[in-house]
Design a protein that fits this description.
heterodimer; A: alpha+beta; 3 domains; 7-stranded antiparallel beta sheet; 5-stranded antiparallel beta sheet; 10 helices; globular; B: alpha/beta; Nucleotidyltransferase, domain 5; Rossmann fold; 6-stranded mixed beta sheet; 5-stranded mixed beta sheet; 19 strands
Chain lengths: 451, 456
């Protein structure tokens, strides 16, 4: 049996999911993936905190989106389903899938005002949907429209995944025994340690001043194959609050990217990273603090601080990309809403200008891309009165770039004023726009060589 | 021949590197052969084929071809220019997935824009000026563009500007491609990608067409040409917007033919020389996840297996010999065929290819030895060393079979599986043993092309 079998199988089994994990029933992540890298470490906590109080049989499903229980944004819902129970030498396997529904720019002072928060709740047991619970969720004033139907479709998908699991288990020797788990996780940890040891060891500091008022301070130490991230000196949250697990997840994501541990996203490799945060700092947020801004800009700041510090230690010459991202929500009359996220780092594969123009009263003027500097410029015009909410950058102040590099300009959302001049908006806010207002988003993605 | 020769039909299945040719009369095989395109071209291959068959006349020739896929890994575009609405020159490139290692579909020095605009409601907001057209023609001539794609925003709502430019460019002898109106998909970039691909593949496609027609001169009735399967199983010849769809013509034809033959739901495990996939004849996929991004292209559902015949063997991150995610082509091909330098999955089953048409004659003892030596060297460098050559081979074969078994078990929706393709006889028996809950039916190697004759 190959050492990589657990990964190979998990990779096949999860191939159609964007964010998911296979775990042992005692909560060890065997393999996790996510299109939002910081989410992968949270799966363990979802399993741990849910199954402590809720007993699920194979094929039964619970849901949660609580940012403080290992979750993510409130519009990203986690579904946990046991695939097998622990029996003899078989420790049992869990599937956790995270899916997005009706995303929005939900900025508020409290988590419960940002959207419907669902603590771990069973929704499918004994082959039946638990309709009263689902209906109660649907009646919540902040529950997105169409939630019930979406939930039913997701349960059907997971039941199909359960059927496939059983089909595979019947005929293939699946390597899910306690000893195989142990072997796999040990190997993963040793691999990660070796990868860290292959590069320079040492220490570095980075500091980021967030526009929302917080200061992030990081002292990073890479020693003996272990990475210690100490955020002592980081200030308390004002507007940006990052749950503990998301802070760890963001640090871990930076480590994975930096050391190329993509095939080894499992519990064992979490242990090469130690994260210390002072109590009360914005990276150690507690319920009921709001999390949306923290999960966007706070996580981006942590990831950037980690990357900058790691580069200092390793003295890396690799291309350095910014974490710049701009999220805008334009609300027109009749509940017509356009949410968009723009990043120079990743493309918007599914954005269709014609579709947007036919669905919303807006018209695009131009979209330009300069691949050399990873500069994007998107200009559009609103055709009717609307409200704009946005959240762009964690800082508009230029970052302290590594030696020899110049940080890219901060993301700018600009409005064309009456005099024909473009005016920059702050990094976050809400404003009403008159019909015919022109808006422009400018993003730069790459650190460039300093002259 | 005893039968009326004019009732004989020719069906060709053209992959990236192999051709399978099948002559049938009243749905019965008259002659079958397969040849490697690296050795024998279309024209000479066909002439030899007819000579072997002893057939002088055929009624019609139909083709399912994946050949154009071959050029997709190279830089496309050639002399294809793109004209967009001013301000949106980089929009299609902007949406290209960044994780794909392919170049942009249109080369940047052949992207032009003109001042025109139509609203989402179809109102013409900016009429295309004659002067702009003249300037554009000049620029296209300077760049020696032959084919031009017109990609205007909202042109499907009001094609006035698009048609105006098309007419002017056609008059100037450019071959013009406009996105087909697709009522089920209003994603402009998906339509533009399809259009550029149809234009970019045109040259190669026409070369294939002409070579086939040349090779069939004298065999086909006067004035008849070879016809190609589109993704909807319909046959086409010169319709240039259908060319991309030819990639999925074979799966459509196989599915149609097998649905006539087999009752109830079933799946097709296609184990060809160039591709392993699971085809669901009763399911349709709406999109093609192309290297340049999603393209709306309805086609029979065809899921590629994670292992392919030419998946390379390497030492993975776990330090053990296994299969990588890299799929090589038959150029230069597996090592046992003499020219390849990297071990592949099919090299492990070299001994089973002795009677495989198109492959048997390409087997090279030196290539095989080189493969064994390379594998042994890799084994020495791996963390889990096999202690003998035999063990090494059997371990790797076991890994491959296990992965294929899991893949089929996780992907198959039906318990009935029809197994076909040149390599099906090699793997089907083992899969049947490992997946007892499935009913496997194995089709002979001639069926890949025979089914094309039955599929339209």
């Amino acid at each position: 049996m190959l050492s990589s079998w657990i990964f190979e199988f998990a990779d096949l089994f999860l191939k159609n999911e964007m964010s998911a994990a296979l775990l042992s029933s005692d909560g060890e992540i065997l393999h996790a993936k996510s299109n939002l890298g910081f989410e992968v470490t949270g799966f363990k906590n979802i399993a741990d905190s849910s199954l402590k109080y809720i007993a699920l049989k194979p094929g039964e499903i619970l849901i949660t989106n609580d940012s403080y229980s290992g979750g993510s944004f409130l519009h990203r819902y986690s579904f946990l389903m046991p695939l097998t129970t622990a029996e003899g030498s078989h420790p049992g396997v869990l599937l956790c899938v995270r899916r997005e529904f009706s995303p929005g720019l939900n900025l508020s002072d409290k988590l419960d005002n940002e959207g419907l928060r669902i603590p771990p709740t069973p929704i499918f047991q004994n082959g039946q949907l638990i309709t009263p619970i689902i209906e109660a969720m649907s009646r919540h004033p902040l529950c997105p429209q169409g939630f019930q139907a979406w939930l039913q479709a997701t349960v059907a998908d997971l039941s199909e995944a359960y059927r496939k699991w059983n089909q595979a288990e019947k005929s293939c020797k699946l390597p899910f025994t306690a000893s195989e788990f142990k072997k796999f996780l040990n190997f993963s940890k040793n691999y990660a340690t070796e990868k860290i040891l292959e590069k320079a060891q040492g220490e570095a500091r980075s500091e980021i001043q967030l526009d929302s008022g917080e200061t992030l301070k990081l002292h990073l130490e890479v020693n003996n194959g272990l990475i210690k991230a100490d955020f002592s000196g980081t200030t308390a949250g004002i507007k940006t609050h990052v749950p503990d697990l998301a802070t760890f997840g963001a640090c871990y994501d930076a480590v994975v990217q930096f050391y190329g541990l993509h095939c080894f996203k499992n519990s064992a490799t979490f242990s090469v990273l130690q994260v210390t945060k002072p109590l009360g700092c914005f990276l150690n947020a507690k319920y009921p603090a709001s999390t949306h801004q923290g999960l966007q800009t706070g996580v981006a700041a942590v990831r950037m601080a980690m990357t900058l510090a790691l580069r200092q230690i390793i003295q890396s010459k690799e291309v350095l990309l910014s974490e710049n991202l701009a999220v805008m929500e334009v609300s027109f009359a009749d509940n017509n809403r356009w949410l968009s996220a723009w990043s120079a780092k990743s493309c918007c594969e599914s954005v269709s200008l014609e579709k947007l123009e036919s669905q919303h009263p807006l018209q695009f003027v131009r979209v330009e891309k300069d691949p050399e500097n990873m500069h994007l410029q998107i200009e559009f015009k609103t055709l009717t009165a609307c409200q704009l909410r946005w959240l762009s950058e964690f800082t508009k102040t230029n970052l302290r770039a590594p030696k020899g590099l110049k940080a890219p300009q901060a993301t700018q959302i600009e409005v064309l004023a009456d005099k024909g001049e473009w005016t920059c908006l702050p990094s976050q806010g809400t404003t009403d726009l008159a019909p015919g207002t022109s808006l422009r988003v400018n993003l730069w993605g790459q650190f460039v060589t300093a002259n | 021949m005893a039968q009326a020769e004019t009732d004989v039909n020719l069906a060709l299945y053209i992959g990236e590197s192999f051709v399978e040719a099948h002559l049938c009369h009243n749905q019965k095989t008259v002659h079958f052969n397969r040849w490697y395109l690296g050795k024998e071209g279309f024209k000479s291959g066909l002439q030899k084929f007819f000579q072997e068959a002893g057939v002088q006349k055929i009624n019609k020739a139909i083709v399912a071809s994946r050949f154009v896929e071959k050029i997709m890994s190279y830089r496309l575009g050639g002399s294809v220019a793109t004209v967009t609405t001013k301000g949106f020159e980089s929009w299609a490139g902007f949406r290209q997935p960044q994780n794909q290692k392919v170049g942009p579909l249109s080369s940047t020095d052949l992207i032009f824009s003109v001042d025109e605009r139509c609203s989402a409601a179809g109102t013409l907001e900016k009429e295309l000026a004659e002067n702009d057209i003249n300037e554009l023609v000049e620029k296209l001539r300077q760049k020696q563009a032959k084919r031009v794609c017109i990609h205007f925003l909202n042109a499907s709502k009001n094609p006035h500007n698009q048609n105006k430019l098309k007419e002017a460019l056609t008059k100037e002898s450019f071959e013009v491609f406009i996105p087909a109106v697709d009522t089920y998909n209003n994603d402009e970039v998906s339509q533009w990608r399809k259009n550029v691909l149809n234009a970019s593949l045109s040259g190669t496609f026409e070369e294939v067409q002409e070579e086939l027609n040349e090779g069939l001169k004298g065999f086909l009735p006067e004035g008849e040409r070879v016809l190609f399967f589109g993704s909807d199983c319909q046959l086409f010849d010169k319709e240039n917007h259908q060319r991309l769809g030819s990639l999925w013509g074979a799966t459509a034809a196989w599915s149609t033919a097998l649905k006539k033959r087999i009752a109830g739901n079933f799946e097709v495990l296609y184990l060809g020389l160039e591709q392993f996939s699971l085809i669901s004849p009763s399911k349709e996929m709406q999109n093609w996840n192309s290297p340049w991004g999603m393209i709306h292209a309805p086609q029979t559902q065809n899921t590629l297996l994670s292992l392919q015949p030419t998946t390379s063997i390497e030492i993975g991150p776990w330090g053990e010999l296994s299969f990588s995610r890299t799929v090589l082509s038959y150029e230069p091909g597996p090592m046992f065929m003499g020219r390849g330098q990297i071990p592949t999955l099919i090299d492990l089953w070299e001994d089973k290819t002795a009677t495989l048409k198109g492959v048997a004659e390409r087997r090279s003892p030196q290539g095989l030895q080189k493969f064994k030596n390379q594998l042994l060297a890799l084994n020495k460098a791996s963390l889990q060393k096999a202690d003998s050559e035999e063990k090494l081979f059997s371990n790797l074969r076991e890994v491959a079979m296990h992965k294929m078994t899991v893949d089929v078990a996780l992907s198959a929706q039906n318990s009935k599986i029809v197994c076909m393709g040149a390599l099906a006889p090699i793997f089907a028996a083992e899969l049947k043993k490992r997946l007892p809950q499935f009913q496997f039916e194995l089709l002979s190697e001639t069926e890949t092309s025979l089914l094309l004759n039955q599929g339209h």
